[in-house]
């Protein structure tokens, strides 16, 4: 359980490089993610949470440092290559699905995440039963809308679908970037429950950015706080269990 | 009667342009100006090849290949060179003008007395204008079937996803740059192929024959969509061919009204603009309708 899966070593990431507006977003950040970790990530706006995810995902290239997966250097791997082990759910429900394609077509796309796509027929029909069962576990009517274009779904349904797509082909690392933030409280709660259930069941390794202190405390086995591009707080196990919102608030007051 | 047959034949021959443009305009969701250059490029390539003794079939396929190379250049400028797609297309279109003059050696080359796809025993024995109808049907059935098959493959689905939501496509490991380049290559290949067909049908290639091509190709797409309404993707591809034929009928009517061939580009632009503004008109109409109803039930 404690074998390091993903390591970030001394990662520096700047934006607007070589201009007067140069800002260091990740400042010699170090983080070791162990297999099976479910880490909630807290931090104020601008602390570097989303940038951290973009560095792991390869959307942003880091200026110095190393990113390792199973001890292997992946610092220079492309976004496409990293999708073999990595999947993501974005905050904006519009970003996670293809609006003109149907729910089933989206699922089929996700099933081949990181794999070669050739000129073989897509074979959608034979997957329909499987997808109906799968979407039924979401309990939000998605299974009735398999042939609906995702652009016509509600935000909650779309985000549930995005989450399902991200876990359909088991990722070694799952990144959730405030994936429930754009939803109403009830829908947000339901999706959070589902997320937790699925992460536990599949023993997924997961990092979840959230602004809900309660969620950050309730879910996961480990909690980290990012501040000015560094991990300034990192607790796991029993220590995390003992944490309360009051303690977190006082910690935040200290670092500001 | 023969005017109608001729319009259907022309509609079928030109429909391949609509299908080609559909791949970029509707699926990748951008307007590719390269086609204004690749249409005469296909025509020039084909005519030059036939003049040098190549068989019409090989010359027509060669036009496809040369057209897709032009698409490759636009794609590289756009994805790797980060030049906006509209400008990348205009650059290649402009460059094509010089290339076309080089290929043909002069501005206009005739195919008089040369072999073409239309000059074989079977097509020549058909009544007048039926040759383009028959050839057009064969070409469109083959091309549309291939495109429909492609779009239903794993690769084709990745291609559609790229145009639909690039962020998602990338997060699923789809190389969106490659998809755009591929789309531009196939699209421009088809447009050049269409140029080769039209040149053989007309009996000549002209360096200026590309002017307004994007409007004609768009017209087939838009008229097809306006005329047939809500369709699936596959049906929409078939509707492009029907749209292309309808567009020829519109031109026929316009010419019958007394306009001459020099007015065609102006009229094509007006027809297309009207069709594209239809949703706006509809909304304005519905608005009045709703307003009226609202006043009626106001008690």
UniProtKB/TrEMBL annotation, chain A:
Gene Ontology cellular-component terms listed: plasma membrane
Tagged with keyword Repeat: no
ABC transporter domain ranges (all copies): 6-253
Subcellular location: Cell membrane
Top-level taxon: Bacteria
Gene Ontology molecular function, alphabetical: ATP binding; ATP hydrolysis activity
Stored PROSITE patterns: ABC_TRANSPORTER_1, ABC_TRANSPORTER_2
InterPro entries in the cross-refs: AAA+_ATPase (IPR003593), ABC_transporter-like_ATP-bd (IPR003439), ABC_transporter-like_CS (IPR017871), ABC_transporter_ATP-bind (IPR050166), P-loop_NTPase (IPR027417)
Keyword ATP-binding in annotation: yes
Entry keyword set: ATP-binding, Cell membrane, Membrane, Nucleotide-binding, Transport
Pfam family, one: ABC_tran
Signal sequence segment: none
Principal location class: membrane
Membrane topology (UniProt): Peripheral membrane protein
Name of the protein: ABC-type uncharacterized transport system, ATPase component
Organism (species): Levilactobacillus spicheri DSM 15429
From TrEMBL, chain B:
InterPro entries: ABC_transp_permease
Keyword Transmembrane helix among UniProt keywords: yes
Recorded superkingdom: Bacteria
Keywords assigned by UniProt, alphabetized: Cell membrane, Membrane, Transmembrane, Transmembrane helix
Protein name: ABC transporter permease
One protein family per Pfam: BPD_transp_2
Residue ranges of the TM segments: 12-31, 57-78, 85-104, 129-151, 181-199, 211-228, 237-259, 265-285
Main localization of the protein described in the UniProt heading: membrane
